[in-house]
Amino acid sequence: MAKNEGQVAIKKYANRRLYNTGTSTYVTLEDLAEMVKKGEDFTVQDAKSGDDITHSVLTQIIFEQESKTGNTLLPISFLRQLITYYGDQMQMVVPSFLEHSMRAFTEQQTQMREQVTRAFGETPLTKNLQLPMQMVEDQVRRNTEMFQQAMQMFSPFKAPATNAKESRKAEAKDIDELKEQLRALQSKLDSL
After folding, report:
1. PHA accumulation regulator DNA-binding N-terminal domain: which residues (predicted)?
2. Residue 3 lies in a domain
3. Among 30, 59, 152, 156, which is least packed by CB within 10 angstroms?
4. Does 86 lie in the same domain as 118?
């Protein structure tokens, strides 16, 4: 199959093997994860039916990444909240909201890296992790508030006081989980 503006076609066969038509080689889910990290665009097609199964394969990569490492990227509270939107009136809004949020987070991450580099030089976070942690916490707080406001626009009949209390608890838990992940990262950096 011909490439579509740089997009590579990956064919998935019945034996679960993945074939990269761009390189004419068999690949693994780990190879596809690396392609994503490098920004390479691809689609995954069922070799027999021709159906686009990119979504399910990317979901499988996330599942394997989450189970393979001890560091999970998706907090349980987020997964629970996400599951509640299936079959809900919000199901149509959530994908575009998450896509917008991830794009904004990526832009802010780039800005944060530039600020950390300016503040601490070219070394990876040096000894002081307090400023980057504060910046991440602030960003998590802003994103959480933005998400809550968007959800309240579409859920006007829920009691705001209860939602606010639950949201603060979930936000505090997410921040604690993020702090723990940053501490683990700092420990790894210190050991290097």
Report:
1. 10-68
2. no
3. 156
4. yes
